[in-house]
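User: Carbohydrate ABC transporter substrate-binding protein (CUT1 family), Cohnella phaseoli:
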Amino acid sequence: MNLGKSQRLLVFTASIALLAGLTTGCGGGNSGGKEPAASPGASATGSSSQSAESGGDPVKIKFAGWGDPSEKEVFTKLLKGFEEKYPTIKVEYLHIPADYVGKMNTILAGGDAPDVFYVPDGDFGRWVSQGLLHPIEDLVNASSIDTGDMWESGLIRYRYDGAVNGQGPLYALPKDIGPTVLYYNKDLFNKMNVPFPSADTPMTFEQLLDTAKKLTIEENGKVKQYGMGPIWWEGFVLGNGGAFLSDDRREFLGNGTAAVEALQFAADLSNQHKVVPNAAALKDMNDSQMFQTGRLAMMITGRWMVPEFRKLAFDWDVAPLPVNKWAGWSGSVGLGIYSKSKHIEASYKLVEYLGGPEGQKEQSLMGFAIPSFKSMAATDVFLQPGQKPEHAEVFIKAAENEVPGPWTNLPNAKWFDMLSQGLAPMWEGKKSAADVLNDLKPKIDAAIKEGNPAVFK
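Assistant: Predicted structure for Carbohydrate ABC transporter substrate-binding protein (CUT1 family):
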């Protein structure tokens, strides 16, 4: 999933705004407790189109997605293979390289969207609750897709029961799953005589701070080399045993002790210990650029950076997120069918092809995605021995333990936008985490109730 292009970076004031705009993509829309309707004239198991395997008249469908040139090239190849497999289905590829969510919102509002399109997990709740996605549970069950071999954390985020995400029937198949891990510059570790992080056991907060201090270089009052990159704070909360919402999704719990401790520690890494660059330090060069130029020893990101980092001159590897235990969040992009599509059966064939073994293999071979199928992830298709990173299995263990990001828990994620933006005084060192989160709790609770009335029925 090229999450690095669509959903990064989560840190401090600048990243808070980025997270709200790109990761959640939220803003309005709820189901009002009603199940989204299937497309007119189509059931969950068929449509008015000719069978995709029959010799009927050709069916033309549209497919929309984003991605850099390499991803576009892969999907162009995949679509050609799909058309060869299903000669009665022709696919028009709409590649949207920038502002995908904004442009799709406009297209969807116009009522004539592509038949199949990328569904970022942060936008799934809003789109499904507005009745824009066709239910595919029956189609999946009748197809060759083995959901038992797929990462449950990938599937669950595309379920919706009319009130909350994460339960009910499927409305999309994961195109990918993007577990987040720790990348580190092995050359810098060797130069500073610092032991490499374990590939099996996550660092504790204390170990992270100690390691980051040893890798930070300050000259004349200015940091020349940072030990650790921007903090993806949601994983810190989860790794410390904290929670964002109650089990019934009705209450914000982010001001609990474990969450407060984790967020205060994350803020202190920059404001107090100076081992993480602040917003000002990231103004001219982001964390990826700092890592690539040797100014950053460790950083958090996903598998999508592997192809780019394989071009680097120095040696690097990956380790678990440094959050006390195997924990954190993974991102994902789904493949959904437009609820008004006139070709549901043909559209599902494309979803099945791209989200199935054929599509997953091609994406994985590029290096930027972990397959949606666990069995495939355990093969050389993904592990790619002889290529970096040496410990690619870290991604597999991460996928087993990381959960969907908190912005995926409710159809209307305005509450999470409020949280992300409201943390700014803490990142700036102006207020403590406890004060910020206690101030935010009543506002966030109100936003949860206002934006998701079906949850309270």
